[in-house]
Amino acid sequence: MLLQPLPYHLKVRDHFKQQTKTWEFFAAVNNKDGHLAEYKSGLLKNTYKFDPSIDLIIYNAVDKARSGLGLQGLSVTVYQTGYTDELNAGIVYHNNEAHIVFSGPLTTLLDEKELTAVIAHELTHVKLYSMLDGDLEIADRIISAIANNPQSEPAHYETARLYKLYTEIFCDRGAYSVIGETAPAISGLVKATTGLAKVSAESYLRQAEEIFAEGSHEKTSTVSHPENYIRARALQLWHNKKEAAEDEIVKMIEGIADIDQLDIFRQQELANLTREFLQLFLKPKWMQGILQVSHAKNFFTDFSLSENSLLTRDLTEKIAKAHNSIRDYLGYLLLDFALADSSIEEAAFGWAFQFSEDVALKNVFEAIVKKELNHSDKKLLQHRSRSLTAFYEVNEKESEQIYE
After folding, report:
1. Start-to-end C-alpha separation, the chain
2. How many helices (H) does the chain have, and how many strands (E)?
3. For 147-257, where are the E strands, in sequence order?
4. CB–CB of 171/125 below 8 Å?
5. What is the per-residue pLDDT for 240?
6. Per-residue pLDDT tens digits for 215-235
7. Which residues, other chains included, contact 261 with Cβ-Cβ below 8 Å and sequence gap of 6+?
8. Which range among 32-36, 198-202, 304-308 shows the weakest confidence by mean pLDDT?
9. How many CB atoms lie within 10 A of CB 116?
10. Is the pLDDT of residue 66 over 50?
């Protein structure tokens, strides 16, 4: 089966390619020749370079991986670093040269299939970044540079994290395509993580399934779902279902959007949801005072009211299925705008109580009001009843209704 970039790779590529100046700047950067020469010099000074005429097992694995990936013209050299406790394999490549560096006693822990899988995984990085005229390598450098800037937003870090994770998943598929089995790719991954000399891929997969069975809303960055479990399970799903597994893999990796872990795409989705939410809540003319509208412009400088805003089933379902953190955020938005103008506060609160029920946020909003206004259950009921009465007394025209 042909290896194809994952949809997230293409999404990130397309996003940054639309930013012409940024894309052209990174595409034009061509200082790798000097860096590579310096890197090779450092390798020769600080590593042992495996000899193709002596270290036949390693270079047989290189040949098999190179052939299986269609990289026969690629020059590959393998090195071993000096003593370190870290178990790892990494790759640097440029201008048809690849340099694979092993750290720690990893090569002594791996059997031949596992060694081939690890080397194939590293060479698949070359495969991926050689596709699409090198666009995916450019996209990687852009998002990595932005994420490494201390002034960047968390969404950029999250985008870089996901991009790299999807890259590792793609490279795991490359290893699988070379050896034709999932077990060596998974056991090699586990050995590199644990330092164990003997592991069971089947046992590790069962362990991963048990973890995911505990909570379908967990994501890769959580303590309960470390990245290696994700990679092992993603590879097995792809082995079992091929393209049909992609949706399940995406759900496993990205889950339901947590407000504290939005990438740049989900950040924009939340911005769009916020705008739509506020346009609906501020549709009644009596809610469009200067304080309310000015407050909305604190969120969007180009905020505009819309007489065509209607509450749709799609929006209600989107809110109902949202992560609890998103639902809490929307509940606090309602409280914020209910308190924005003291001259209409009672009626605005009544509208907020009614609106929260309409958009499947009733329990969330009432819990927030109770907490932030220090209400007892009885006081909350009184506040709700009084506010709704005030709201019902407001005369609204039919054009101000949000309902279809």
Report:
1. 48
2. 19, 4
3. none
4. yes
5. 95
6. 544 455 443 346 899 999 999
7. 154, 158, 219, 221
8. 32-36
9. 26
10. yes
